[in-house]
């Protein structure tokens, strides 16, 4: 009798949750390859993932192609970066997707920034005189491993909600990812440790979470203001400051023209380093998942620090 | 006035009473106090006052703590890693959000307060933007002259989600002619059957240019065919209902749209209630590669015209757009080739008029902020196809930022009257307010 009371609810629960459409993998569409990679880590073969923007593309400037509407139309879950990163292109796509589930605020619309540690949230009156500022904080938050962990956890919870029968599977996948990430984090931290406090310059404000993680010191930007192309006077000023501060590294994203950073590098004696801002963001190098993204960036950056003979600073 | 219930279960120490009072500081008065009161009514009253004092102090401390947190954001320390397997909701709630980090270049100080007590209601205000469209013209044109300098339009947009089922968009156009609702419609994006419905005043989905607002056109002016065959500057813009559906297939994106309009606009005229206008469109799109895509469409419009109550006009259109934009260099490289063809059949007392018009236009990005363009267009006039206008244009567009644009257009037009016009048109476009979506 006791056995029956135990078995019956389990059978019932199994029958209720496993029954409908979820035999086929869940279709997860993420706006970027980073979020897609994290969804894949957690979802395994229970999900079929896709992304809209490519890693080597400026995620602010994506064209809202109708082919994206088709992807969104059949999505079981949409994961977005949020913080207005996709404001220029995603809203009309969702609007035309004819998919009730993934409308903003609906159950299958997951804003990954809700799980992340967000930096550079402006606190006063902001105007566009400051350039293309994001009023809700810097949206490039996926570039810290800790945020990757939190996002993966958020995705695990959401996938378990959608497909409770696979909750155990997702939890186990997350735990495995968490462990691999923790091991890798130690490795990355050790490799970057000698360069703590090192002064660098970046093109766009894509790296606050990354530099915070490894204690780098960003002393300037190639862009005079976010989203505003470099101007001659700003370039001159930056070059002089870099010489004064002995800055040897300029980090750029693969989608920016390297002409100006190269000129600054020549004049100031600094090396231009193209890092991958996203999974899939390095041409010719296999940056095909979230762990490889940091592997690549840490390796590339350490090589550059060594080549320039730079050391960490106060 | 709160009523406290005391259970006379014997005298307890004052310390216990205090502790109890403290422990219930927040949820406080809802639950009956655990400690009992002494029988003496005066002592009870004193205890009550003491308890209220404690609560007040606790609240004051809370307010002070909140104020301090608001004024001085916590340092940008990464919060401790949540243990694996902990539900994700928990870390989200514990996220510390530092304000403008050092070097952010962000603003400092307190947020501005606009209203007073009702300030929170602004959360539900729609996204608002105003776009100024200033057009100047030099040279001569005796057939269709433009003013030398004119703020052609100030377009105000208000956009928001209405409820879980719909969103609404309003575009009001203030021009020297007056204030007009350019568009104002509700969209139901989540109808059953994969349908998308819009109801209100709409720019009809006829071809490409007709559905565009003037500030997203790739030229200062509109092609002759739009003016001659589709009702001029406003184009097909009317009150009606639009329903569209995706036709899923493995080959391409395919969308069918059907629209019904009141039938009173620059092209059509409604004499009685049943004189509605109808618009249909089939649009296909396919990625040729990740950098190149083809967008094609065919459109149809039918309605009564101003020649007489029994006369109708039909317009057929075909459009094709080829775009090239390599993803990695998307900031610097873009090219677009577009053509639209229009056939008009207009019933008139003297017999049907069959007119044709078309344009071919190209756009090429020269640098991150500079675009070149060219257009050739020609069109018969809808009411008399023997009259034919032709024009050619060269364009240069400069983008200081995403929010402003300066454009120059040299245009040579040969009008049916035998008059030639050489003009230089220039335009300043500037946008303030909410960040709108890019046009595709």
Q: Would you summarize the structure shown here?
A:
Chain A has 314 residues and is of the alpha/beta class. Chain A has ten helices and eight strands.
Task: Identify the overall geometry of chain B.
Answer: elongated
What name does the CATH topology of the largest domain in chain B carry? Porin
- Spatial ordering of strands, largest sheet of chain A: 2-1-3-4
In order across it, which strands form the biggest sheet of chain B?
1-2-3-4-5-6-7-8-9-10-11-12-13-14-15-16
User: What percent of the residues of chain B sit in helical stretches (DSSP H or I)?
Assistant: 10-25%
The second-level CATH architecture of the largest domain in chain B is: Beta Barrel
Shape of chain A: globular
- Measured distance between first and last alpha carbons of chain A: 70 Å
Task: Round the mean pLDDT of chain A to the nearest integer and report it.
Answer: 91
β-sheet strand percentage of chain A: 5-15%
Topology of chain A as a string of helices (H) and strands (E) = HEHEHEHEHHEHEHEHEH
Q: What is the chains' assembly state?
A: heterodimer
Overall structural domain count of chain B: 2
